[in-house]
Design goal:
This protein is of the alpha+beta class and about 140 residues long. It is built from three helices and eight strands. The chain is globular, with a radius of gyration of 17 Å.
Length: about 140
């Protein structure tokens, strides 16, 4: 009996963008600095739970919803109690998740974020180069 091979393309598009941030400061200080520089109002939320190969990990989370364009900015610590959100990008201390945006974040956004005195680096992370992204980050 002949064998039939079914090829399925699982490359679905992420409905958010990620910016990797490097900073040697604690979460609350970085959030304050971004609030000052970007004129945001990041507020502390419940820790984000990520379920990975090693089990559950908890990550600090700050969220701001822009009242004008309804874009949601979530600042997450990449390394938390129990592991990393995105192990492929361990060089970034924090992740900035950008949702509900009709435009693609650009280098201009990263340049603006880098104006914060507590941000050492801000780089748009290409989704196609991430080997692992946890569904709990997507939801």
């Amino acid at each position: 009996m002949p064998t039939h091979l079914l090829q399925v393309d699982y490359s679905e598009e992420l409905e958010f963008s990620l910016v990797g941030l490097s900073s040697n400061q604690r979460e609350h200080r970085l959030a304050w600095s971004l609030n000052t520089t970007m004129r945001w109002d990041l507020g502390r939320r419940e820790d984000a739970e990520v379920f990975g190969k090693q089990g559950k990990s908890l990550h600090t989370c700050f969220v701001y919803r822009n009242p004008e364009d309804h874009v949601v900015y979530s600042l997450l610590s990449n390394r938390g109690q129990g592991g990393w959100i995105i192990p492929d990008w361990q060089r970034f201390d924090y992740l900035l998740k950008i949702e509900n945006n009709i435009w693609t974040p650009s280098d201009e956004l990263c340049r603006s974020i880098r104006r914060s005195p507590l941000v050492l680096a801000a780089i748009l992370l290409p989704a196609d180069q991430m080997k692992s992204i946890y569904p709990s980050l997507v939801s």
